[in-house]
């Protein structure tokens, strides 16, 4: 009897601790999105702010991290999901990027702004710029995408439809939000960008999130892919 009560208390305390971390992290990321454009003289990331505000409201209102995918999956399951998603997405990139130059063109557009994620490489030389890029993308901008699409939106769709439809649905919405750069692409590049780099990525990391009910495998994949592609192409 006592053991069961103590176990329940431990689980409750862990849940409260996770909620505090989620709210603090999301709030800090939102603050960084406000401050960074001023500090680095970049464009203002309106979409990313929205992608943080919605899950943050959910966290504050419901006090439930599972509703936004902010949960720690089983270590082995999470690792398998991240590796599988990384292999699939990496294979697509190897097949498409060398002859299409889609991501290369995307980087050119990002540096022209400059986009706050890549402005670190513009404003700082050497290691400082790369550290800033890695931390800001992983903890702020890419985190905002995963928290909203593979976290809050995926879980909202799961309550209304089947798992496969939910994965496809969040990928479609993700693609719509990501579609602005197509106006600066050649027609073929625009099509590949929407199909592979937006919808394809959304399905791949969305499937990983659905399998684990967590944003972390997907966040690991997109953060590493972003850094590797940037290092190769810059």
Automatic annotation (TrEMBL):
Write out the GO biological process terms. Answer: CAAX-box protein maturation
What GO annotations for molecular function exist for this entry? endopeptidase activity
In which domain of life is the source organism classified? Archaea
Task: Please list the residue ranges annotated as the CAAX prenyl protease 2/Lysostaphin resistance protein A-like domain.
Answer: 131-227
> Which key words are in the record?
Membrane, Transmembrane, Transmembrane helix
Q: Does the keyword Metal-binding apply?
A: no
Please give one Pfam family short name.
Rce1-like
Membrane spanning stretches:
21-40, 46-62, 82-100, 120-144, 165-184, 190-208, 215-233
Question: Protein name, please?
Answer: Type II CAAX endopeptidase family protein
What is the native source organism of this protein? Haloplanus litoreus
């Amino acid at each position: 009897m006592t053991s069961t009560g103590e176990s329940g208390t431990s689980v409750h305390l862990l849940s409260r601790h996770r909620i505090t971390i989620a709210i603090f992290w999301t709030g800090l990321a939102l603050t960084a999105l406000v401050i960074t454009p001023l500090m680095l003289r970049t464009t203002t990331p309106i979409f990313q702010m929205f992608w943080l505000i919605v899950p943050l409201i959910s966290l504050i209102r419901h006090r439930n991290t599972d509703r936004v995918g902010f949960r720690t999956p089983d270590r082995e399951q999470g690792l398998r999901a991240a590796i599988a998603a990384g292999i699939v997405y990496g294979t697509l990139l190897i097949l498409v990027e060398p002859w299409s130059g889609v991501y290369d063109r995307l980087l050119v557009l990002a540096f022209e702004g400059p986009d706050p994620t890549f402005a670190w490489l513009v404003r700082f030389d050497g290691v400082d710029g790369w550290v800033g890029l890695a931390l800001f993308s992983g903890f702020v901008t890419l985190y905002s995408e995963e928290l909203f699409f593979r976290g809050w939106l995926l879980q909202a769709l799961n309550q209304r439809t089947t798992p496969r439809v939910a994965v496809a649905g969040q990928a479609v919405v993700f693609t719509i939000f990501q579609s602005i750069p197509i106006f600066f692409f050649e027609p073929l590049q625009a099509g590949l960008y929407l199909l592979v780099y937006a919808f394809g990525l959304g399905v791949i990391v969305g499937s990983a999130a659905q399998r684990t009910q967590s944003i972390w495998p997907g966040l690991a994949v997109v953060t590493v892919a972003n850094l590797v592609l940037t290092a190769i192409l810059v």
